[in-house]
Amino acid sequence: MYKTISFLSIAIFYILSTPSTIVCGQNKIIDKKVMLHLVNKHKLAFTQGKVADYIPELGKANPKAVAFSITNENGETWSVGDNKQKFTIQSISKLIALMLAVEENGEEKVFTQMGYYGTHHPFNYFANLDHNGRPLNPMMNAGAIYTTSLIAGDADEPYQKILARIRYITNNPKIDINPTIYESEKATGYRNRGMFYLMKNYGMIEKEEEVLNNYFRQCSIEIDVEDLSKIAYFIANQGTRYDGDKTHYNKELMQLIQAQMLTAGMYEFSGEYARTIALPSKSGVGGGIIATVPNKIGIAVYNPSLDEHGNSLVGYLILKDFVQEYSLGIF
Ligand code: DON
């Protein structure tokens, strides 16, 4: 009897002290060692890509920095690699802008003047507007500039709302803009300015150029890979924060966002990406990629060396192996 009790207490102690794990896909347990192995396996592939330098300040990123983070079904975040490395969120901010624009205006209004299309064009394609002047989707620059213009408020208020939402989702009040990158974006953003004025020409945007600065500001928000995996978790779990807070729970909206991520989140690479990774995802030229496993986990990877589509090359390779290892793809 005494022996049985002590065996039971050892077993209970073992269960409680074992690092928490999650079971996904085909009942395999996600292991931090596998995450680290994938970082080490792919980290040298940065030599095959290129750090973005069309915004000069972005070109200063360390091409060797690699980080990988997941926020699991219990809302716990596990990270490996250079997980404290800060970088700018760039196009991943388009998800938050879409979130706020739809919350404030409704999906119908937002998509009256914008399409749900995929595209074979890159993110900054100047003519990515259909014959009525409508942007193809909210993931490419033109659509994102339009989306941000729909968020109510004067001067930088729309940007402040985006920042506040990112701080809420990550529960990280320290997140802020990188002012040097913002100035660099603004000084070199001629293509974006061109798209802005094209949409103004079609009567889609009433506000003046100051509203475009909010797009540059949102792209210049500095985060790390852990913040990103919490954002991915939030979207995957229909607006439930990693700690269970449901202030912004909105299933319809998160379904819309994930549908757009799957269709256009990786730009002209989205189709092939849906075949190889099969998870709603969004990249940014800062080197981050987020991926959602719907109703389960949030995933984020970081390395600033990009492929020809503007997506993190090392990040893609890590994601591809990880998704295959745990059968995480939605198909
Ligand atoms: O508008 C731009 O060019 C950048 N601020 C954001 C582009 C971006 O991140 C594209 N994603 N891969």
TrEMBL record:
Single biological process term from Gene Ontology: L-glutamine catabolic process
Catalytic activity of the protein: L-glutamine + H2O = L-glutamate + NH4(+)
Keyword vocabulary terms for this entry: Acetylation, Hydrolase
Sequence positions that bind substrate: S91, N141, E185, N192, Y215, Y267, V285
NCBIfam families (alphabetical): Gln_ase (TIGR03814)
Subunit structure: Homotetramer.
PANTHER family, sorted: GLUTAMINASE
Family the UniProt entry places it in: Belongs to the glutaminase family.
Protein name (record): Glutaminase
Protein species of origin: Weeksella virosa (strain ATCC 43766 / DSM 16922 / JCM 21250 / CCUG 30538 / CDC 9751 / IAM 14551 / NBRC 16016 / NCTC 11634 / CL345/78)
